[in-house]
Amino acid sequence: MQRIALFLIALFLFTITDADAQRQTTYESLLRQSDQPSAYSDHVVLPQINSNSTVAVLFRLEHDFLPFLRVRPNMSAPSEEFSYFSPVRMGLEIFEGEHRSSRRETRPTGVPIFREMWSDTVWVETFEDTQSRYDHVQGVLSTQLEHGTYHYQLQLARGGSERESPSQVRPLAVHDPDSLKKADFFIVNDLDRSSNQINATFLNYGSNVLYGQNYSLLIRLPKADSDVSDDERYELSIYRVQNGEKSATADPHFTTVIDTDKYFNASESAIRKNGDDIEVELLAGEGGVLYADVLVPNVEFENASYKIELKDLEQDEVVGEKSIQSRWIDMPVSLYNLDVSIDMLKFIVDERELKNLNSGSKAERERKFREFWEERDPTPDTEFNELMTEYYERIDYAYQNFSSFQTPGYDTDRGKTYILYGPPTNIDRQLLPNQPTREIWEYPDRELIFEAVSGLGDFRLISES
């Protein structure tokens, strides 16, 4: 799977490789990066026996990626509750042969053999819905192709505009079902299997999996030179990687030999849109294409980059691999950068401990940072650390709600209070004549009074009891 390069900036925890650049990163710069909207694309090839293969291009556009318009009085909306809408159109064009790219030519270069268009209108009720990263629209464009080499390009038009933005040109290989030498991996969930059928829903986040959520791998196995239906021949391993490469001495984060009861011979396969989901269906039949499925316990994985490898134990060789990244959709801003994450501990650790956490190489600092939060993890048997997440979410809330022209919200008195104690049980805002505005924050065990020092949102703590 690949992301639409023109549409998306990839962001992952601790991936900045230049130490100097990382040290200069600020919370504000991370906020600008994390606010980038998201879109994803993917192409899938399903070999068919005695016919051309099914080729499908999947795409997912999150609401914050789409420009929404106000519903006009004379418009006929599906419901009176809808206040905003966004027309969207996606085109797919497939070309014969390899893409012959050069500095002067980045457009498709082959003979076009397939064109198709998808369109939809997204309707939402509130402005907050237009900014959502949890809501999306997705679609699929598919055709049948004989085995060969191709390339394709997507064109996207948003917000009712006629102007189309092209994606990068991507290669597409359709192999002969009788000579499939490499495995292929599909990231799915809600996999339902019976003796004669498999149905699953594509996750459709490009090469990403969702942090803290299990998923399944539907694996199209290579064409073996002998019957493997009774052999535990394949071993699946998932390694953590840095800069796309695993360590030569790294042990797999997860490994399993695929049981024979996970094999499935599919004589027919199809991809279709079903409601809001994009599904794959495999039907059993003798002499078909061999698949297998594996449930990946992703709740045990760190938020990081990984490589999937499938090994043929009989041939002692890797017959398939895929790079994936963990995506934490609502990850607190500070966690996008190690140094910012450590610096933001200044509200709960003393200067000496903060200096210790900030010393050493990047690997040493990351180790100390992880150990700091592991010691405070309320659920140590799971990878997700609720306390760490709550702490950094409070910093985000403080920045969003208490910032002024002079001071970021987390450095204000109200912001520091919120970070340390969380949301108050009650806030009493007093507008007194000829006196500064006051806010009284009430907690079960304390009361804090803040007083405005300007008309621009600056407050200082004047009393705590």
From TrEMBL:
Keyword hit for ATP-binding: no
This protein's UniProt keywords: Signal
Secretion signal, residue range per the UniProt entry: 1-21
The keyword S-adenosyl-L-methionine belongs to this UniProt entry's keyword annotation: no
Pfam families in UniProt: GWxTD_dom
InterPro entries for this protein: GWxTD_dom
Domain GWxTD: 342-445
Cross-referenced NCBIfam families: GWxTD_dom
Protein name: GWxTD domain-containing protein
Organism per entry: Rhodohalobacter barkolensis
